[in-house]
Specification:
The chain has about 110 residues and is an all-alpha fold. It is built from six helices and no strands.
Amino acid sequence: RLAAPGRWDEGEAALMEAIAAVERGHRGLRMHASLSLADLRVVQGRLEEAETLLTGNEDFGAATTVRARLHLARGESDLALAVLDKALGRRPSPMLEDAPLLALLVDARLAH
């Protein structure tokens, strides 16, 4: 989580290295690194690059948070709400692991 304290350059380098290391490896490992880099790109305001990194990974549950953040960054609160409602609607009741999605849901509703 180097991006959280604002160490973006270090975080970017680590994520790029992780993507390169698993380029021929397990798809799940590549996807996780790509989604983490996409999330960093959203924070950096590099939205087109984030979208490119999400391409092909949109249907994975791990992409939900990044997709919602990308939509919010673009001012697309309706799309962010749709992504979050779909993800949260699959569960009978919210769980602790849903906290980041619920926080984004609040942001999306406020933006809407």
